[in-house]
Amino acid sequence: xxxxxxxxxxxxxxxxxxxxxxxxxxxxxxxxxxxxxxxxxxxxxxxxxxxxxxxxxxxxxxxxxxxxxxxxxxxxxxxxxxxxxxxxxxxxxxxxxxxxxxxxxxxxxxxxxxxxxxxxxxxxxxxxxxxxxxxxxxxxxxxxxxxxxxxxxxxxxxxxxxxxxxxxxxxxxxxxxxxxxxxxxxxxxxxxxxxxxxxxxxxxxxxxxxxxxxxxxxxxxxxxxxxxxxxxxxxxxxxxxxxxxxxxxxxxxxxxxxxxxxxxxxxxxxxxxxxxxxxxxxxxxxxxxxxxxxxxxxxxxxxxxxxxxxxxxxxxxxxxxxxxxx
Amino acid sequence: xxxxxxxxxxxxxxxxxxxxxxxxxxxxxxxxxxxxxxxxxxxxxxxxxxxxxxxxxxxxxxxxxxxxxxxxxxxxxxxxxxxxxxxxxxxxxxxxxxxxxxxxxxxxxxxxxxxxxxxxxxxxxxxxxxxxxxxxxxxxxxxxxxxxxxxxxxxxxxxxxxxxxxxxxxxxxxxxxxxxxxxxxxxxxxxxxxxxxxxxxxxxxxxxxxxxxxxxxxxxxxxxxxxxxxxxxxxxxxxxxxxxxxxxxxxxxxxxxxxxxxxxxxxxxxxxxxxxxxxxxxxxxxxxxxxxxxxxxxxxxxxxxxxxxxxxxxxxxxxxxxxxxxxxxxxxxxxxxxxxxxxxxxxxxxxxxxxxxxxxxxxxxxxxxxxxxxxxx
Lengths: 326, 377
Hints:
The complex is a heterodimer.
Chain A lengths: L3 H8 L9 H6 L15 H13 L3 E6 L2 H4 L13 E4 L4 H17 L9 E7 H6 L2 H9 L5 E6 L40 H8 L5 E6 L3 H13 L4 E6 L3 H4 L6 H10 L6 E4 L2 E4 L10 H4 L10 H17 L10
Parallel strand pairs in A: 1-2, 1-3, 3-4, 4-6, 5-6
Antiparallel strand pairs in A: 5-7, 7-8
Helix pairs in contact in A: 3-9, 5-7
Chain B lengths: L4 E5 H11 L4 E4 L6 H13 L3 E4 L3 H13 L4 E5 L1 H16 L4 E7 L16 H6 L8 E3 L4 H18 L2 E7 H5 L1 E5 L60 H16 L2 H4 L2 E4 L6 E4 L2 H16 L4 E6 L1 E3 L3 H10 L2 E6 L5 H9 L4 E6 L8 H11 L1
Parallel strand pairs in B: 2-3, 2-4, 4-5, 5-7, 6-7, 10-11, 10-13, 13-14
Antiparallel strand pairs in B: 1-8, 6-12, 9-11
Helix pairs in contact in B: 1-2, 1-6, 3-4, 10-13, 11-12
């Protein structure tokens, strides 16, 4: 005999996967006009695509970050689905409460609708820095919710400060290059998604995606939503202001991140990793670095250090694809 | 030769003041409207051999400066309301473990996220009672960019002298306003460092009351080994539940501030000698109040301004005297009544007392203050 909750969860219709960009374009928008993000904003695009993929039976939670502040400034907000702000520390905890409350209401027969897809949409700071404790606890308790980390590799809301996801060598307002520290940021970033997978081995689904590969990203959001339990999507969301790019370079930059092996597109299901971008060879990282002003101060030895870090990452992940020589 | 001067934002002046005071460590986390303090410290500290660390959150930032201070560094952290709320557990730790440190709170609207880019003066009571448990508090509240520089230096001196956390309460307006700063020459402003142990490592106790109410603090990593804990502790630093030891330690930690209140307090008085109505205001509100006083004087109203620069401990004695001198006191503040409680506690009903508050993210105007003065007279 199934419980009422199980019936409701089963009643939830799985979001079908998209075959191509045309099907994605046909979908209704749930992140609409009424925000003041920068021209070419990667995080705004990642939000729009996530909302399109998520559909109407969705609730979004936005911990403090640029996708909270820049979206809520005109006495209106761009979400056509329920949305709430959480503190930057605790989105994972708030989503736990919402998910558990829906379960309780369904169990008691007080809610007759289908179980919603409940998303956290947190920046890299709200995911991998100050927000990591609550994010981890939500995954550990396996609440039926989706944690999306939109990773623009800095605290852009407060003026481009370094985060745990900011790459080695990047200028930020808290990591200025100078004679004492010529490479600006000296630390290498966390490997957030793989770290969370390692920390929560029972997690059913996790993925890394990029705004430059929209269908792949939207399908990963849908697969995460279709899971009954906690799921994670880490999306690379380029910030033109913070990275020193023109608006028309944003998608190119996202592609170069993937094509140089700097950012890996992957899925983790049933304990197995699969990689969605499998070229004959990765491009040298210099091609990715040279278009971004935040790396303009770097010298060839710094480029080399970053290339070595990427090579080690490919090796560590068992990706046996060579990197082209410069 | 003319002294060096610059057009600086209040936040920038704060960072330069910290370097002047000998700060060598900054632990921080970005938050509007304080981030420029960290930004400037990230540039200045490497030049003086100091260390800047961006921490994972505001709690970590406060914890890092406690650790660095215990190793002998002069330390700074800067934040705003939501960050200050997170730091409260460690504010208590710094109080009980008696760790010198300076924390800047650039006040913005609240509670919670509030108005990150709007000014406020609503953390007056948090600065005194934000952390749980009985504890003393020292907080200073500068009202100009030049004064942010000098009060930052004084905040370090107070933290080092009294071996405790000292808060600098700045509102967003002064923090982001640009004014001319004249840099004091080295030696022009007093710079104080903590008292070092006068006994050898084998005799040293980190909370030894025989050296007075502020026992000397050794540096961890030196020859001195000692125990630090958030628990109630005995003079040797180890936890205790012995009633007489806990009581003595608690009372000493309060006494070290209360008995030296006169040395910690700093006020400015403007046209107070013959005043019949006093405006008690701090920070940005005091600048509107000063203009209100000038206009009222022009209209024949004997108004004066009392500006506490040290907010905690509150200058109770002087405000009590003022309460006996004037017919009325008006307290303008960018909150709905916080400093006024301290004024009321000091004056004990000896004069008419009323407040004028503003919490819409705009500064109080001289007109608003004058209207209240005329209403109470």
